[in-house]
Amino acid sequence: MLLLSTTTRLSAVTAHLFPTLNLRNNRFLSTMVNTIEKATFAAGCFWGVEKVFFKHFKQFGIETRVGYTGGKPDAKNPTYRQVRYLIPLAFILCWLHISLSIPRLYVRTFAMKQQVCNGIGNHAEALEIKFSPEKVSYEALVEFFYRMHDPTTVNKQGPDEGPQYRSAIFYHSVAQREIAERVTAEVQEAHYKGKPIVTTIVEGDVFYDAEDYHQQYLEKNPHGYEVSLWVVVMSYCVIG
Which residue numbers delimit the Peptide methionine sulphoxide reductase MsrA domain (predicted)? Predict the structure, then answer.
């Protein structure tokens, strides 16, 4: 009776100190809440980066946000706006009737960013991913990052040029940094011999969410990269 009482008290104390320990089968129960981590990448236009990452990993429950990061400390709260001095040029083109034969243009040629696009703040267009390591590994995200863009071009992806389109990995822990460095070395050796990868691996900085209309932009606007010159001009007149 004394032994039973002592065992009962010991079990109660053990259960209090180690709530996840199952004494019956002597193993830990999986009662922990899924840990959510953060990954941040820059690989060109954030519209496309978000689209391909979300399409590839949505079955793993990731959450994505596009925004700006990696800028100068004193350049806070960058915004995305049309640069007004380009609009008179658009009207000149219309006046010359060039617009009648101009093909569909990249909206980003005229819809540019204050601070971000003109280089004042030196921010990069970036994608922030929230993910569960139990469903998808950080290593898998980094490997996909290298597959979905060209990491050997300096400040350029496709037709988009400028420091805001640079290739970068913003790590949020020592473990992430080590994984990013290792995967980068492996990709360099396996796929880019003689052509150096220019991706920068830097510590994560303040991440500024882009405006709401940029979030999942290409999901909402499948042809969002292209727009006629007249639409750009009229949009400017309406938006101001």
Answer: 38-83, 114-226
pLDDT of residue 9: 52
Q: Which residues contact residue 130 at a Cβ distance below 8 angstroms, ignoring those fewer than 6 apart? A: 36, 37, 38, 62, 63, 64
One domain for residues 156 and 142: yes
Pairing of strands 27-28, 37-43: unpaired
- In three-state secondary structure terms, 63 is strand
Full residue range of the structural domain in which residue 139 is found: 37-239
Residue 200 sits in a domain whose CATH number is 3.30.1060.10
Say if pTM beats, i.e. exceeds, 0.70. no
Burial class (CB in 10 A: 0-12, 13-18, 19+), 125: buried
Same domain, residue pair 20 and 41: no
Q: What is the mean pLDDT of residues 168-177?
A: 98
Region 156-176: what's the mean pLDDT? 95
Name the pLDDT band for 119 (thresholds 50, 70, 90).
Answer: low
Could you say which DSSP state residue 211 is in?
P
Q: Is 239 exposed, middle or buried (0-12, 13-18, 19+ CB in 10 A)?
A: exposed
Does one domain contain both 17 and 105?
no
Which helix (H) or strand (E) segment holds residue 31: the answer is: none
CA atoms within 13 A on the CB side of 206: 12
Rounded mean pLDDT, 70-83: 69
In one-letter notation, the amino acid at residue 132 is: S
Active site residue 94: no
Residues 118 and 66 in one domain: yes
**pLDDT tens, residue by residue, 17-42:** 444 444 344 444 344 456 999 999 99
